[in-house]
Amino acid sequence: MNKASCRRTTRPTAGPAYSTRDPGDLQLGVQALLIKEAGLVPTLPVGYVHRVRTGTAPDLDIGSFNQSALVLISGDVGEFHYDSNFVLNEQTADPVRRAQYGQTLSVTHDLFSEALHDRLEITGELWHFTQPLVTTTIHGSPNQRSNAVGTLWTLGYAVRPNLILDVGFDHGLTSTSTAWQTFGGFTYLIPHRLWPHRTPPALPAGPLKHVHRR
After folding, report:
1. In terms of CATH, what superfamily is 23-188?
2. For residue 25, which of 61, 52, 62, 63 has the smallest C-alpha distance?
3. Residue 9: is its pLDDT beyond 50?
4. Which of 23, 62, 189, 212 would bridge with 55, disulfide CB 3.0–4.6 Å?
5. What are phi and psi of 115, to 5 degrees?
6. In terms of Cα–Cα distance, which of 65, 74, 90 is closest to 31?
7. Are 163 and 191 in contact (CB under 8 A)?
8. Residue 167: CA atoms inside 13 Å, Cβ hemisphere, count?
9. What is the mean pLDDT of residues 197-202?
10. Per-chain mean pLDDT for the chain
11. pTM of the predicted model over 0.90
12. Of 190, 122, 119, residue with least CA distance to 160
């Protein structure tokens, strides 16, 4: 999700500051697994995301999208885990519609694995997104071909196998990227299936007999 719910504090030129609460976008998507990791062969899922409702929270520098298609590649090399995303988005600024392309590469490694029993990990990421609807730099200078490039660093701590807390920062590297961002969040995996397994009917006890019918 490119927009998150946020609280903004605004200080006008005259008068006291005031706060507003802004909802983020609502997006729904599906994902399918094409290849499951086996040895050096990486996991290969594909996904599609569609924006159902547009929020009023301010965009990040990569903007919002109406719909998005993505290919994800992840795997392990020794003690390092890597993830790479290839993204194709549709961005709009009525009546203009533009394609946006993005690539990310992140590497994760455990910290103090023996003392903390593999609970703490650090991730470094390098990302790039085109900005087809951005025509000026953060300083207001005109810019015809804009690209947001940045590096992201995060620490993740596993409270439980299905609950991960994370905190980190992102630093933009180009004149059209947000200079600094900080964030925190959590990932929770539902411990039980929402629907039961479908088990095949039990076979009758005893030897099976094949009956010929004419």
Report:
1. monomeric porin ompg (2.40.160.40)
2. 52
3. no
4. 23
5. -70, -35
6. 74
7. no
8. 1
9. 65
10. 85
11. no
12. 119
